[in-house]
Specification:
By secondary structure, the protein is an alpha+beta fold. The protein has 12 helices and 45 strands. Helices cover 15% and strands 36% of the residues.
Length: 723
């Protein structure tokens, strides 16, 4: 469950109050209509095997750049020349074949859910310029080259297919797929949303086999949404397992291309479990699968013989609370060892194991989290990772020897670094930004030496220099309970410490997520600038349960989701109320998704503290939300009824006192409109005054056309009138 986010960009200018008077105030049109905040980036990077060049999309073309200089060397594909008959084919996405002679082009993409989509796929021969459709006339999904480039696997209408590049022959690997019943090769809704993967098939390293998952969702309850627009509304139905309800049965199979036979793997007698990850080891006949129990407090790493189906559990972990799956598992080329990360020490760290599952050594250690593992250069024996060692609001790049020695910080500049290495780990691209710095995309050698700045966003800085901008300042709140919470504040450009200002708090607060990071937040930041110009102070606080501070802080909310989060936001509001420059009678709060849930809880449980609240697309009863996410943090409803009900805004609707605005999209497949309906019913039953608004057919992101402008205009008006 995550809010819809836009591209991180920043702004590196701090102005004095006298300067601010000469600059333009930001309007909602500036934020949403002709967005002044939109910067440039370097997108769709594909590294070439040579290690010295990479390709990227620019102005509809695929350009090639020298990795050592960052300079363009040639245009690989001129977009206007890729034609189907006489019509130019728009390149929405592309993949180079392993031998780099062909490109798999994706066009006319149709989104399905958060990660899933379908599109028309074409093979484009770089030498002959010939364009060949894959599965002509039909949109397909997840088309992927085999490692040898001779085949393409894809999904169509819940089945998995094989396409021979040389002959154009198509083979159906599965035939039993059916909407809302059986899915082969791609995940169901809840796996896509909560385990964060959609592609559920993988080529073996030698291209001779395909391992794939099959989802039997026939027993999963169906959720129905009405889609509005015609004379009669249409029903849109999909399988959605709410907390405590039946999940899909998930099976793993391996298809052998030479024999055409499929082996079904026996992952254990337990049906009510999750296959959270699947990947091949460096052995072309050895498949790796990570299995979790339903409560997600036990995880098994299994090695499977793809020729016989024999299963061996090589590593098993249990937790008092829960595990969150990651993609750090990496098998070494020597076939004897693997990299694995876990938070069992109290912080997320990297470990080296033998293939038998025996621990060889910890590679990282300390009272800080490895936020992501980027990869291993086996030639040099160096691992690369991002960490919070410089502070929980920072993301910095480090290297360390596989021996665990010689840890070195490579990144420069406080803030957030988003790093992508080339396959040889000789160079990386760093997208750096902070609360006071625009997105700067640079090319570096693996040792941290700068090669070239690829995008500095000078045009963005020049444009924003005309506007009134107030800096974001970080600070720490110590609550009356002694809990230390990260926070940031934005004050009006003409701030006067002798005046009292209304405060709007922004919250998300969900498990592992942070709103308080030294990074840029995109359009919301500029909305806050507009509010600041109208005399509001904006504050955001990361409560217990959020990330960056180790597992004890992150997992403190286990089995009581919402309780401590709400307490911390209320305590933070009380802290702010004591500040001499804050009008204690005018403190508001707003949030989206989990933040909408937390806002609703604060407006009921904390009714005496908050004057105004805006809840966008909130969960109002965790019994309505999906199985994987909810049970991970709350257990099953049958095991922990009080954990569900004692922190549900619906339960406390009768305590509402302030001004409350509830907003939801009727087409929200994630947090169902049912949540808003339930909250409205509870408020009406308690005879409470409130405001509500719904957006027909809009999903969890509530966007499309002028939708965001309309939403933020409405929220601004509500704040100005009610706070």
């Amino acid at each position: 469950m995550r809010k819809y986010f836009l591209l991180f960009i920043g702004f590196g200018l701090i102005v004095s109050s006298s300067q601010a008077q000469q600059k333009k105030a930001i309007s909602l049109d500036d934020v949403w209509k002709a967005p002044i905040w939109r910067g440039e980036s370097v997108d769709d990077v594909n590294w070439f095997k040579s290690g010295s060049t990479y390709s990227a999309m620019k102005d509809g073309n695929i350009e090639v750049y020298d990795i050592r200089t960052g300079l363009k060397t040639k245009t690989l594909v001129e977009g206007s020349s890729v034609k189907l008959d006489t019509a130019v084919l728009s390149i929405d996405n592309y993949t180079l074949s392993p031998d780099e002679t062909q490109i798999l082009i994706e066009t006319e993409i149709q989104p399905i859910y958060r990660r899933s989509s379908k599109a028309f796929f074409y093979l484009y021969n770089l030498q002959t310029k010939k364009l060949t459709p894959v599965h002509p006339g039909q949109r397909i999904s997840l088309a992927s080259f085999s490692p040898d480039g001779k085949s393409v696997a894809f999904c169509f209408e819940n089945n998995l297919y094989l396409y021979d590049v040389a002959t154009g022959k198509e083979t159906a690997i599965t035939k039993t797929g059916k909407p809302n019943e059986i899915i082969h090769g791609s995940s169901d809704w809840v796996y896509e949303e909560e385990f964060e993967f959609w592609k559920a098939f993988h080529w073996s390293p030698d291209s001779k086999k395909i391992a794939f998952m099959s989802f039997d969702e026939r027993q999963v309850p169906t959720y129905n949404m009405q889609m509005w627009g015609g004379l009669y509304p249409k029903d849109y139905t999909f399988k959605y397992p709410k907390a405590g309800e039946k999940n899909s049965r998930v099976d793993v199979s391996v298809y052998d291309l030479s024999s055409g036979k499929t082996i079904e793997i026996q992952e254990g007698a337990e049906n009510d479990q999750y296959i959270a990850r699947m990947q091949w080891t460096k052995n072309a006949n050895l498949l790796s699968v990570r299995r979790m129990n339903r409560l997600q407090n036990k995880i098994d790493l299994m090695h499977i013989d793809a020729t016989t189906g024999a299963v061996q559990i090589v590593l098993s972990e249990t937790a008092k609370a829960f595990f969150e799956i990651n993609d750090d598992l990496t098998y070494l080329q020597n076939g004897k060892e693997f990299i694995y990360s876990t938070d069992q020490s109290g912080f997320q760290h990297i470990y080296l194991y033998g293939m038998d599952g025996k621990l060889i050594r910890p590679i990282t250690a300390g009272n800080w989290d490895v936020s992501s593992f980027l990869g291993l250069d086996e030639k040099k024996g160096l691992l690369y990772f991002m960490s919070t060692e410089d502070g929980s609001i920072q993301r910095q790049l480090y290297s360390v020897s596989i021996s665990g020695k010689n840890k070195k910080k490579l990144s420069a500049g406080a803030g957030t670094h988003d790093v992508r290495f080339n396959p040889e780990f000789t160079y990386y691209i760093d997208n750096y930004h902070s609360s006071a710095t625009p997105s700067v995309v640079s090319l570096y050698q693996a040792d941290g030496k700068l090669v070239k700045v690829l995008e500095d966003n000078k045009a963005l800085n020049a444009r924003l220099n005309n506007y009134q901008i107030s800096p974001k300042t970080f600070f720490e709140i110590t609550t009356e309970k002694g809990v230390k919470l990260n926070a940031w504040i934005i004050k009006p450009a003409d701030f006067d410490p002798n005046k009292k200002y209304p405060v709007l708090m922004h919250c998300y607060g969900g498990p592992g997520h942070q709103t308080v990071t030294d990074a840029w937040g995109g359009p919301d930041f500029f909305w806050y600038q507009m509010l600041a110009s109208k005399g509001y102070i904006i504050v955001s606080v990361d409560n217990r349960g959020t990330g960056g501070k180790g597992s004890e802080f992150r997992k403190a909310t286990y089995a009581q989701l919402g309780k401590l989060e709400c307490e911390d936001q209320i305590d933070a509001a009380r802290y702010l109320a004591k500040q001499s420059y804050v009008d204690a009678s005018r403190i508001g709060i707003w949030g989206w998704s989990f933040g909408g849930y937390l806002t609703s809880l604060c407006m009921t449980k904390g009714a005496d503290i908050f004057k105004t609240g805006i809840a966008v697309a909130p969960v109002t009863n965790w019994r309505f939300y999906d199985s994987i996410y909810t049970e991970r943090y709350l257990k099953l409803p049958s095991e922990n009824a009080s954990g569900y009900d004692d922190n549900s805004p619906v339960t406390f609707a009768d305590k509402l006192k302030g001004n409350y605005l509830l907003v939801h999209g009727t087409g929200d497949d994630n947090v169902h409109f049912q949540n808003a309906v339930s909250m409205v019913n509870a408020l009406v039953k308690s005879n409470k005054k409130f405001d509500s608004f719904y957006y027909p057919n809009r999903n969890h992101g509530i966007y499309g056309g002028s939708t965001r402008l309309h939403l933020y205009t409405m929220m601004t008006d509500f704040i100005e009138k009610k706070l």
